[in-house]
Amino acid sequence: MTNHKLLNRQLKKYATEELSSNPDFVNFIEAVSDSYFAFDRDKELSDHAFTLSEEEFSEINGKLKEEVELRRLSIQKLKNTLSHIKAENNESVSSDDDDLLEIVDLLNDEITRRKAVEKQLLLAKEEAEKASMAKSEFLSIISHEIRTPLNAVLGMGHLLLKNNPRPDQVDNLRALKTSSDNLLMLINDILDFNKIEAGKLDLEETSFNIKKLVKDIITANTNSANDRENKIVLNIDGALPEYFMGDSLRMGQVLNNLVSNAVKFTQRGTITVSVALRELKEGSAFVEFSVEDTGVGISEENYAAIFLPFIQASTSITRQYGGTGLGLAITKRILLLLGSDISISSVIGKGSVFSFVLELKIVDSTENQPAEDDTVDFDLDNKSILLVEDTLFNVLYATQLLESWKAKVNVAENGSIAVEMLRQNKCDLVLMDLQMPVMDGYTATLKIREFNTETPIIALTASATSDVRKKVIEVGMQDYVTKPFNPNDFFVKLKKYLS
């Protein structure tokens, strides 16, 4: 359809190429053009009206009414189209149906406004991304600065408890260990939650013994259960396969959160941990985990709230029981990453039941089962270990720990010294701190691998960022240990590479 000539001139003057390609604007222009042609016809009829007979005038008058109605409908269509494509704002279209140029101007203004809004949104997105990166970097630095001294606090407490303290010192040392363990748990919860929120929590698949995993968690919570005069009962389905493939670390974190919560909110009661086979498929099984307690219970209206970060069922809980309110929030998010969700049922004053179901791959071959050492003998058989560490109290702790396991320890204060020491003398294993002055652990490892590709190098890092393992492997290290570390786990890892 050809537009009215006057309208074409106005479009050339006011319309942009972007505006002309808008389908809604094209419909609008058609309505405007109809109005222009209708106006021309009205004017032509008006000019000749006085020369017509009364009969002809009556006939033309009828046509005029039809044209007026047609124009009214066209204007209505135009307004409907305009209201469809324009954003909400304070501007309004004039009531003058003939002022079509005003409507064109409003459309131009609307397109300009939308472009400005899009630009502002883009800038806001960029600022949010910068803020997120700054937060992650801040948490990484804070993590390192807190974990480094905490490693010495936990380590020295461990060594003092091992060295036959006086009976009056034992209680003090155990209080120190409990407090430092709780501090580490709080730090880990905050960092894990940040990683989950940022979508950087990596899941791994390794072979693990499900019965041992659950028993270890119960053992870890036994002392706190005894302190509150609680009994922990374990029920494991006899039909359950023994080995599975999955992220045992995160599964253990979920179970430990639930068991420690049950212990914390129960006094002189029973915590029952159950693992049951719900369905067996070819190559996988649906396993249900549940933790039941006889504790204080939770009201139904608080079911959803307890899984929100930093929220607890009531304001008195923090004062009475402590905690950040992150444990269940992290638990729920980890289960969602594992393809599951958590269920809860509870009665105030009688207790609660938390449960979830996971589909796990079954490990059939004994070749895929992990090597386990339940009876750690703490003997490294005079192996030579180079400790690359710049923090004095971490050197003291690690040296005493390694020497108590009959290892020979040499110390390098930074990566540069470590490179030169390895050029001149061989050793059985290197423990490499990552952040050091003069030369960091990554650079030192790259230089060592230029002339020595055989000696195992294990990273010692206080950083909790998700890309540490990737960087460690890329530069040629075999593994990493996160400070502060559990001495038993540390020994098993050393023995793995010194065998």
Q: What string gives the helices and strands in order?
A: HHHHHHEHEEHEEHHEEEHEHEHEHEH
Alpha-beta content class: alpha/beta
Helix content: 40-55%
Q: How would you name the CATH homologous superfamily of the largest domain?
A: Histidine kinase-like ATPase, C-terminal domain
Distance linking N and C termini? 87 Å
User: Per DSSP, what share of the residues sits in E-state strands of 2 or more residues?
Assistant: 15-25%
Q: Return the domain count.
A: 4
Which segments are poorly predicted (pLDDT under 50) over 5 or more consecutive residues?
313-321, 370-375
CATH architecture of the largest domain: 2-Layer Sandwich
Question: Measured on Cα atoms, how large is the radius of gyration?
Answer: 37 Å
Give the gist of this structure.
By secondary structure, this protein is of the alpha/beta class. It contains 15 helices and twelve strands.
Describe this structure in words.
There is one protein chain. With 499 residues, the protein is an alpha/beta fold. The chain folds into 4 domains: 5-117; 128-197, Helix Hairpins, CATH 1.10.287; 206-368, 2-Layer Sandwich (Heat Shock Protein 90); 384-498, Response regulator (Rossmann fold, 3-Layer(aba) Sandwich), CATH 3.40.50. Helix content is 54%, strand content 15%. The chain contains 15 helices and 12 strands. The chain has helices spanning 5-14, 17-20, 23-49, 54-85, 100-162, 167-197, 210-227, 248-264, 315-321, 327-337, 392-404, 415-424, 441-448, 468-474, 487-498, and strands at residues 206-209, 231-236, 243-246, 270-281, 284-293, 343-347, 351-362, 384-388, 408-412, 429-433, 457-461, 479-482. The strands form 2 sheets. Strands 1, 2, 3, 4, 5, 6 and 7 form a 7-stranded mixed sheet that branches. Helix 13 (441-448) links the parallel strand 10 and strand 11 (457-461). Helix 6 (167-197) packs across helix 10 (327-337) and helix 8 runs antiparallel to helix 10 (327-337). The longest helix is centred in the first third of the chain and has 63 residues, at 100-162. The chain is elongated and about 125 Å long. 25% of the residues are buried. Mean pLDDT is 81; it is low at 313-321 and 370-375.
